[in-house]
Amino acid sequence: MTNFRTAHQTLLDLAATQAALDDFGPENFREGYERLLDSLDDARLSDNGAIAARESIIRALISRLRAIDGFKKHDAAMKTPIIRPLIVTGIVRSGTTALHKLLSMDEQFQGTEHWITAAPQPRPARRDWPKNLDFQRASAQLDAMIEIAPEMLEDHGMSVDGVEESLNILAHTFCSNMYPSQFDIPEYDKWYRAEDDTFSYEYLADVLRIIGANEAEKTWLLKNPTDTFSLQQVINVFPDALVIQTHRDPLQSIPSIVNLLAGAKRIFQGENADLKRTFEREQEFWAEAMAQADLTKATLSDERFMDIRFDDFVQDQLGVVASIYDHFDLTLTNKTENAMGDWLKANPRKSKTMQRFTPEDYGCETAALLEEYTDYRTRYGFI
Asked: Which of 53, 128, 234, 336 is 20 to 30 A off residue 219, Cα-Cα?
């Protein structure tokens, strides 16, 4: 089994060898990288989980090497401004994925497809993707992950050629919620929450410039629930961003988050997975994220933000989309409406209930959750 504490340089060297590149760019990723590795030895990983974690970290390092190489090769693209990106965020399991994919049917937007988040490069024509080696590699990796945790396909709608959340790119900086949500690493989590991750979003912006080099005129459509936690940092880097925040009663969303994360916990911890600890961490983290988002939103004009309730979206997806376009003065064409309608027919909502899981399913208490989210539930009409 890997001893992560002593593997700092080993994994860097392996990534450099596999990528045939050696420039990791600015050193600001190193503290998070080293803290992550130092934490993993205490994360109760299974033998297979330790191997999977090691490979996941090497892949993130390779992605970073590829991105830094791209920054140097495409110097002109690095000067491209990112104007008024449309960002979908909100507590996990509040409709962000469905809304993101629905909006991606509009050809005026460009997004970060799953495969290209791992291999940053100017996005080639879609017809050329199947013969792209990076696309083939990402497809095989995703198939393997879904075989272990099939609920990731059902609950997250993951596909190699579909838009993916920017969390996957932010992970290249090693200052990311991806890691404490996947692994039981409280010391890293404490460090991450206290860190100013503006540098991570600056890296994201540069990666977007590379990916969008061939379509610089298109508006960016991004999605990342964790942007709620770092909303001030998002605005620091994208000062004219338009932000959609989705909302769902935490009594429904937090248990659903834990159900979603159970697949990742199974991959990395096997029988060592403690979903009660996972529930407690997610309950606390998302309460903090909602509070942070409200603080930032209070400093900005209403025209920059739109709040959407999950139940409203479930009842009338296209009606909610039309209200988004009206609010942000975007053009919604008949062609786009038809494409969105086709997507909804092909991807019907599977669950017919608003709540499939409860805190008690994970050894926790409904009363404690309701107490922690009293302010949020009151503010957004869930009480």
From this structure: 128
- Residue identified by tokens 């697949």 is 263
Q: Which residues of 13-38 are buried (b: 16+ CB within 10 A; e: fewer)?
A: ebbbeebeeeebbeeebeebbebbbb
The pLDDT, as a whole number, for residue 351 is 61
pTM score > 0.85 for this model? yes
Rounded (5°) CA angle 143-148-154: 70
Number of H helices, E strands in the chain: 19, 5
| Neighbour order of strands in the sheet with 86-90 | 109-110, 219-223, 86-90, 242-247, 305-309
DSSP state of 171: G
One-letter amino acid for residue 318 of the chain: L
Secondary structure class of 343 (helix, strand, coil):
helix
CA distance 178 to 185: 11
Percent share of the chain, pLDDT over 70 = 96
Cα 210 from Cα 30, distance rounded (Å): 23
Query: What's the pLDDT tens digit per position in 101-150?
Result: 999 999 999 999 999 999 999 999 999 999 999 999 999 989 887 787 67
Return the amino acid letter for 124.
P
Q: Which fold has domain 83-379?
A: Rossmann fold (3.40.50)
| Domain ranges across the chain | 83-379
